[in-house]
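R.M. (postdoc): so does anyone remember the format we settled on? I'll just put the structure tokens first.
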């Protein structure tokens, strides 16, 4: 995808201000206080509180544990260190990945212990990571959102590598291989019921503050690959205009049913989703965003994220707007206003997923080499009161902060503590 450099973007902004001439200067000298009053009033209308979060990823040991095979004491120490890091940066929420690949980071009657703990799927680590995380997060004044991946079974395509008791081996008809990975088939009602049972077991056992999903629904497209759900479509797809509409309905059902069960199991617990940042490009749909993204969640992942917000099915949405201000194909400064408009008037809160992991990465565009890029995102979001907070990917970068981007966010925006919205 093409890009606009930070310097070019700044130049364009400056040119726009110069062209505006006296009108801009007049507004700056006479309208500033009124503008700030209007913004403050808009923020009051949407309520108080600000979510300041970080994702704590466990798949492939990205953030935690640092490697497999650590002792229970070592794992616990590392986990608490991440919680302390969140507190130190005046965050108030940790989104902890507890079901990365059809497994569990708590003693589950449905699925095996995660291999990312001991190195062996199904092996008891000797302690309860999720139970500990909930207790210790709350002791530190943090919310703990439990992060689940509904359909991903394995990052390989060999069912025999799964523990013998794995549900995917006991029900091979539930499994569909795609792109070198294994997934549960979203088109099967029995799969939809099972994955809900498996995820919501954690909600029954622990006082988690939210059930959280990320961007994985139907798998991201892989060139030359076809997802073979012919049998399920033949059996259940009658009455739909096409296969894509049927697939979207499968995901809609999962969202609606999960939302209802969350409220029934533990009233007051939130249900939030963090999808890929582009619903549809405007060139595809007039209601879409002014983007040229290569992936559109509605078309490619069969996830109608806009509908979930407008219908109020979920408590919050946290789109992963993982691009810099001025990026040509998907500009942060265009996507955030688009999402704010979607959330306006709905019962769904808007949080913004931020790509902290890109800061200082030499493979990323020039804007990400500037420690102030992320801080500018939060400054920009102030003009959109629907945006009630930000979540940073991910915990490892919050702690390491290689170019000081997170420190800049804290210095510019998190000088005082804040409670998350409720």
């Amino acid at each position: 995808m093409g890009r606009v450099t930070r310097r070019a973007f700044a130049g364009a902004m400056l040119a726009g201000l110069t062209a505006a001439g006296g009108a801009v200067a007049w507004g700056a000298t006479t309208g500033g206080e009124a503008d700030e009053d209007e913004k403050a009033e808009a923020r009051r209308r949407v309520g108080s509180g600000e979510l300041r979060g970080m994702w704590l990823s466990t798949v492939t040991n990205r953030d935690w544990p640092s490697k497999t095979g650590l002792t229970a004491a070592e794992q616990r120490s590392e986990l608490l260190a991440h919680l302390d890091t969140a507190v130190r940066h005046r965050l108030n929420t940790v989104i902890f990945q507890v079901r990365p690949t059809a497994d569990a980071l708590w003693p589950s009657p449905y699925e095996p212990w995660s291999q990312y703990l001991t190195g062996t799927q199904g092996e008891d680590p000797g302690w309860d990571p999720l139970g500990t995380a909930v207790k210790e997060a709350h002791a530190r004044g943090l919310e703990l959102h439990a992060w689940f991946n509904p359909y991903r079974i394995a990052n390989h395509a060999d069912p025999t590598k799964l523990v013998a008791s794995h549900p995917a081996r006991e029900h091979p008809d539930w499994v569909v291989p795609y792109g070198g990975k294994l997934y549960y088939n979203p088109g099967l009602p029995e799969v939809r019921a099972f994955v809900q049972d498996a995820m919501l077991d954690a909600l029954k056992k622990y006082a988690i503050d939210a059930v959280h999903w990320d961007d994985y629904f139907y798998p991201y497209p892989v060139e030359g690959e076809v997802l073979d759900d012919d049998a399920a479509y033949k059996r259940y797809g009658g009455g739909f205009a096409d296969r894509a509409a049927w697939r979207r309905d499968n995901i809609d059902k999962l969202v609606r049913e999960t939302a209802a069960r969350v409220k029934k199991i533990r009233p007051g617990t939130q249900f939030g989703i963090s999808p890929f940042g582009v619903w549809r490009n405007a060139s595809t749909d007039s209601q879409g965003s002014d983007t040229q993204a290569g992936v559109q969640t509605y078309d490619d992942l069969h996830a109608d994220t806009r509908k979930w917000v407008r219908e109020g099915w979920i408590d919050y949405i946290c789109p992963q707007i993982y691009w810099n201000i001025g990026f040509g194909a998907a500009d942060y400064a265009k996507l955030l206003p688009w999402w704010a408009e979607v959330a306006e008037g709905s019962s769904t809160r808007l949080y913004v997923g931020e790509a902290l992991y890109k800061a200082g990465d030499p493979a990323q565009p020039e804007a990400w080499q500037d420690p102030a890029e992320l801080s500018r995102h939060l400054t920009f979001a102030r003009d959109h009161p629907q945006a009630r907070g930000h979540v940073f990917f991910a915990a490892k970068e919050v702690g390491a902060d290689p170019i000081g981007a997170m420190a800049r966010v804290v210095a510019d925006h998190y000088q005082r503590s804040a409670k998350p919205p409720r």
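R.M.: ...and that's the designed sequence above, right after the tokens. Also worth knowing: The first strand starts at residue 51 and ends at 56. The chain is about 40% helix and 10% strand.
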